[in-house]
Design brief:
This is Amidohydrolase. The structure is a single chain. 41% of the residues lie in helices and 16% in strands. The chain is built from 14 helices and ten strands. A hairpin with an 8-residue loop joins β1 and β2.
Amino acid sequence: MKKYLLQSLFVLSFSPLFAQDEVLKKLDSRAEFYGDIAKQIWNNPELGYLETNSSALLQKTLSDAGFKVTAGVADIPTAFVAEYGSGKPVIGIMAEFDALPGVSQKAVPFRDPVVVDGAGHACGHHLFGAASVAAGISVMDWMKENKIAGTIRVYGTPAEEGGGGKVYMARAGLIADVDVMLHWHPSSQNAAGATSSLANISTKFRFYGEASHAAAAPERGKSALDAVEAMNFMVNLMREHVPMQTRMHYVITRGGEAPNVVPAFAESYHYVRHPDALVVKEIFARMVKAAEGAALGTQTRMEYEVINGVYNLLPNETLARIMHKNLEQVGGINYTPEERVFAEEIIKTYPVGVKVSPDDATKIAPFVVSEEGGGGSTDVGDISWLVPTVGLGAATWVPGTSAHTWQAVAAGGMSIGQKGMMVAAKTLTLTAMDIFKDPSVTEKALEELNRRRGEGFSYEALVGDRKPPLDYRK
């Protein structure tokens, strides 16, 4: 009897469910540690390509845990690759950590900036980076304890918000041998479907004219601001004549210094998006023609700089079904009474018609497969056309919250955000474990990638051969 009991205990200790439970318990025990890392990054929001402290903190955390870290890759000072193990399969986990300008906010359920017009983590990348690092370390520990063959990597990817860090890392060959790439993103819901995004090209159009006294000698001036306004007028007229899914938006970043001086320089910053990267390229070419026409009509000179260009996400159902299964196992989050009060106050700030409940954070969205791009754009898109890629969204924000808002910053700076972050860390960990245990998954995922991108596909970065725009946020 004793012999059979020992055998049963031996089998149980090496069963998949037992291993998963132990890994998840260990992550739970370190939730406060990783939450503190995220909070440090939240307290010191750094814009794209300027994330010196955020990147250094994540690198140190990985290095202290036993990863080999290579910093400053792809000619980007804040980009890094952390690696453990050797051989196949190679599984990557991407980590973002850049903030957004102008959305500074305290962790309170009403508008209250920390610094007026300051930066803030309105897309939750402080949580993104911390959870991905947590998952990488968790997988590494599991590999060590169970003598699992293969390689786990954490990619520190700067400047997702318009800087396209991943594009340059891919172009530098840093993902060439990766079999599967995992990622996640903060969200107002828990979801892991096989869905897409919008391709995007963002560009700064610069116009150069001649300054003059606007009252005494206006005839001598050539207004660069007139050129910007003429271009923007023509771009707005284009809206009637582009495909329905197109999104075009802009800001005037420079419009002159004083009303009584004809502006010699002006600049506008444009985005054009669509679910198909080829359509984006076609509409962008028309936008350039509008800029050229504006310069001709105002007798100014125009030049433009492509700041960023990203593909749409290419779904991978093979991987997404594994990710969804693990997300369902992990489950959503339950609010404490204090968190529920916070959430209810946030919900009161939404526009009329947004019908949500704090209880929605406990739910897992149904599995969806769709190549119709929706929402925003991400440089993960380029990675997904090169390597089988899968991601999830975790409810780090109060249900109903939109990204890039003060409400997102507020929830991301307190326990609601940190709870959602751990849902992501656990799901990423379990998904990587599943793939290591069954390397045939990588073959199926690659077959699907090849089928979706079609025969003869050749990757060409939408940014061309430009260098990383390290000063785009300065």
